[in-house]
Amino acid sequence: MLFLLSFIILASVPAVIGQNLTYLTGLLQTLNASGLTQLASVAPSLNNTPSGQRILSTLPQGNWTLFAPNNAAFGALSSTDTGNTTFLTDTISYHIVSGNFTNETASYPNVTIGRTLLNDSSLVMLEGNKSQVLSWTKLGNGTTAVLNQNMNVSVTNTTQYENLEILVIEAVLIPPPNITSILTNGAYNLTSLSPILSQATLPGNTTTLLQALSSARGITVFAPNNAALSAAQSTLTNLTSNITALSALLSNHVINGTSVYSPLISSSTNYTSAGGEPLMFTTNSSGTYVSSGGSSTARIVRSDILAENGVVHVLDGVLADVQSNPSAASSAYASATSIAAVSTTQTGPLGPTGGSASGSRSGGAIELEPSFQVGGGIAILFSLLGQLA
């Protein structure tokens, strides 16, 4: 049976048979010996798509981590899913992360962010056509848990096969959703933003602000939670007569074109908001804080909510920075766009102390398009005031 599986996987990939047959046969043996027979049985489906064939030829090179769903996890999938080769290829690719993280998994509340092999354009819209990321952490009881799922997915066992660290998990991982799904998920306490962004439209067309955020390629949103929006009602009301200030306030909650995950945030790293203001960070015993222009600060109460096109960090306050610097925003835009276009291969966790990548890591922010920045800002904040009243 094992020989048959190996033959099926490699039969139509003659270019890699010679160098990879031994490796992939050994991998199937390891999966079966570890009780991961369902994963081993669906492996042949990778050979049915070009992206799956690339996975098979890539695995023997470098170091990789496989988050391997156990048999019960695969058994929970519908027959429609297991019979869909594209679904299976995308799903398996999201479980494979570049690098070995044996000694590099952060402890809660910090997280580890790794770059996966998932790069299907229908599921991923990150800057520079980068692959999607996965987030996990080590809990207080020592258990490693994958985050951003319907519930934390625990690692129940580990094994090693040559260059591949295999972490057995109790569920099949789901790739990040779009921003709309995040805002309407009550677990994140951002539901007050959803109707506001859905009603605010860009000037001159019917595109809503939520649609504009969702279509951006690579975006970081510092999103005030429900309580923060309610508490800021009087402050926002005082700004209704100042169009420029309202626009700046909105823009200073967004970094567009760059996905800034929490391991990339530290007191020594500054980013430029879409309004051109410096976003600075401090961390103490009570948490991590973001400051816009040095004039307004809020605490990040939940970090790294992964989206198909970026990341959302939840704040406990509104960044009431009404200053803007279009020149700085434009300069940061040009820099980050250039960096994002450089092809990179991540070899470890994202962050200043993680594995290296070939090429430069994007460290800046980019500005929003002027029509988005100004017109959308006015619409959203007037709408916000009306709904909070």
Automatic annotation (TrEMBL):
GO terms for cellular component: extracellular space; fungal-type vacuole membrane. The keyword Signal applies. The keyword Signal applies. Residues 1-18 form the signal peptide. SMART domains: FAS1. Residues 20-173, 177-319 form the FAS1 domain. GO terms for biological process: macroautophagy. InterPro entries: Adhesion/Biosynth-related, FAS1_dom_sf, FAS1_domain. Transmembrane segments: none annotated. It holds the Pfam family Fasciclin. Keywords: Signal. PANTHER family: FAS1 DOMAIN-CONTAINING PROTEIN, PERIOSTIN-RELATED. This is FAS1 domain-containing protein. It comes from Serpula lacrymans var. lacrymans (strain S7.3) (Dry rot fungus).
